[in-house]
C-alpha cells in the first residue's frame, strides 16, 4: 500500500470519527439539558411549596435549599424562604446544561495526556502528581460558571484531533506546564518555568497563563470549563500578546516563521519519516500500535513537552531546534529498529 493510500485512509477514518463524535456530543448534551431542566423544576416546586406554607424552617434546611437553588441556577426573591433572615434577592450563576464525553486517551498517553502524572512522563524530578481544577490553581470556584463550548484554540486538538501527532504534542505541553507549576518549589521546575516565560517581557502573569492551560486540560477531561476564565481570556486578548511577542522577535531579526506551532512541528516530523514509520507511529497515536513502538515515540513527545516556550496563545519551538532534535531522535530509533533504516534506504 502506498503512502498516499495510507494517508487517504487515515483522513477518511478521521472524518468518520469526527462525525460520530459530533453525534455523541449532541445526544449527550440534549440528554443532560433535559435532566437539568427536570432537576430545576423539581427544586423550584419544593421551594415554592415550602415558601408558601408559612412554616418556620430549621436553619440547616434553609442552607440545603439555598445550595440546591444555587446549583440549579434558580434565583430567589425577597419574599421567599430566607426573608426572615433579612436577605434580599439573590442572583446565582447558572450551572451547565450539558457536557461532552471525555475523549479516549492514546496508547502513548502516559507520555502525553493521560492522568497528568509527572512521574509517568518523567518531566519533573519530584514526580509530583498534577492537581486539576478541583484543588489546584483555582480560587472562588463557587463564583464561576461552567460552559460546554470549547475555547477556539483547542478545537483542532479535540475529538479525532487527539489522535494526531499535533494533538499529542499540544496536550503534552499543557499537562507538562501544569505539572511543573504545581512542582514549582523544585529548582528543576523553576528552571523549566523560567525558560518557558522569561524569553519575553510580556509574559509576566504566570499564574494567569497557567490557569489558561489548566482550563483547557479540564475541558478535555470533563467536557466543560469556567465562563469566568474564558471571558478573562477574551478580555486579555491573548492574540494581542502573541503579536507583541512576535513583534519583539521581529525587531531582533527572528521572524515569526522561525517559531513553529504544534501543527508545523508535526509536519516537520512526518516529512522526515519513512512510509513504514508513519504507519507504525500513526497506529500508536490511534491506540493500536505496539508497546515497542510506543516506547520509541515516547522520548520525542517528552522532549517536545520539556522544551517549548510560551507565545501567549500556545507553545512554540524554534525551527532549527526542531530539525536538530528530530534528526537526533530518528538516528537513535533507527539504531534500535533496523527495519526503519532498511525501509528508509529502500524508499
From TrEMBL:
Which residue intervals make up region (Disordered)?
A: 78-101
UniProt entry tagged with the keyword Coiled coil: yes
Q: Where is the composition biased (Basic and acidic residues)?
A: 80-98
Database matches in CDD domains: bZIP_YAP
Q: Give the lineage.
A: Eukaryota, Fungi, Dikarya, Ascomycota, Pezizomycotina
Q: What is this protein called?
A: BZIP domain-containing protein
Q: Coiled-coil regions in this chain?
A: 22-49
Determine the domain of life of the protein's source. Eukaryota
Q: What keywords appear on the UniProt entry?
A: Coiled coil
Amino acid at each position: 500500500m502506498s503512502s498516499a493510500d495510507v494517508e487517504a485512509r487515515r483522513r477518511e477514518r478521521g472524518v468518520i470519527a469526527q462525525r460520530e463524535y459530533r453525534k455523541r456530543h449532541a445526544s449527550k448534551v440534549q440528554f443532560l439539558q433535559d435532566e437539568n431542566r427536570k432537576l430545576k423544576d423539581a427544586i423550584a416546586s419544593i421551594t415554592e411549596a415550602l415558601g408558601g406554607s408559612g412554616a418556620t424552617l430549621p436553619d440547616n434546611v434553609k442552607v440545603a435549599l439555598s445550595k440546591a437553588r444555587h446549583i440549579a441556577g434558580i434565583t430567589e426573591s425577597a419574599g421567599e424562604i430566607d426573608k426572615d433572615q433579612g436577605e434580599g434577592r439573590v442572583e446565582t450563576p447558572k450551572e451547565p446544561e450539558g457536557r461532552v464525553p471525555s475523549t479516549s486517551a492514546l496508547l502513548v498517553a502516559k507520555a502525553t495526556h493521560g492522568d497528568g502524572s509527572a512521574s509517568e512522563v518523567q518531566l519533573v524530578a519530584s514526580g509530583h502528581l498534577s492537581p486539576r481544577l478541583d484543588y489546584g490553581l483555582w480560587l472562588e470556584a463557587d463564583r464561576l460558571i461552567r460552559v460546554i463550548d470549547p475555547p477556539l484554540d483547542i478545537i483542532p486538538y479535540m475529538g479525532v484531533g487527539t489522535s494526531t501527532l499535533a494533538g499529542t504534542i499540544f496536550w503534552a505541553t499543557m499537562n507538562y506546564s501544569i505539572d511543573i507549576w504545581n512542582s514549582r518549589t523544585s529548582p528543576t521546575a523553576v528552571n523549566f518555568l523560567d525558560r518557558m516565560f522569561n524569553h519575553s517581557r510580556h509574559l509576566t502573569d504566570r499564574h494567569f497563563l497557567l490557569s489558561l492551560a489548566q482550563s483547557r486540560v479540564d475541558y478535555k477531561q470533563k467536557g466543560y470549563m469556567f465562563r469566568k476564565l474564558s471571558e478573562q481570556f477574551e478580555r486579555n486578548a491573548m492574540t494581542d500578546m502573541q503579536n507583541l511577542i512576535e513583534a519583539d522577535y521581529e525587531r531582533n531579526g527572528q521572524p515569526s516563521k522561525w517559531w513553529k506551532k504544534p501543527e508545523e512541528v508535526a509536519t516537520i516530523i512526518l516529512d522526515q519519516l519513512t512510509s513504514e514509520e508513519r504507519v507504525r507511529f500513526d497506529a500508536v497515536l490511534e491506540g493500536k500500535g505496539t508497546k515497542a513502538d510506543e516506547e520509541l515515540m515516547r522520548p520525542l513527545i517528552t522532549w517536545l513537552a520539556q522544551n517549548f516556550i510560551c507565545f501567549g496563545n500556545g507553545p512554540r519551538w524554534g525551527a532549527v531546534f526542531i530539525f536538530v532534535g528530530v534528526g537526533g531522535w530518528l538516528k537513535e530509533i533507527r539504531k534500535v529498529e533496523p527495519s526503519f533504516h532498511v525501509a528508509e534506504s529502500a524508499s
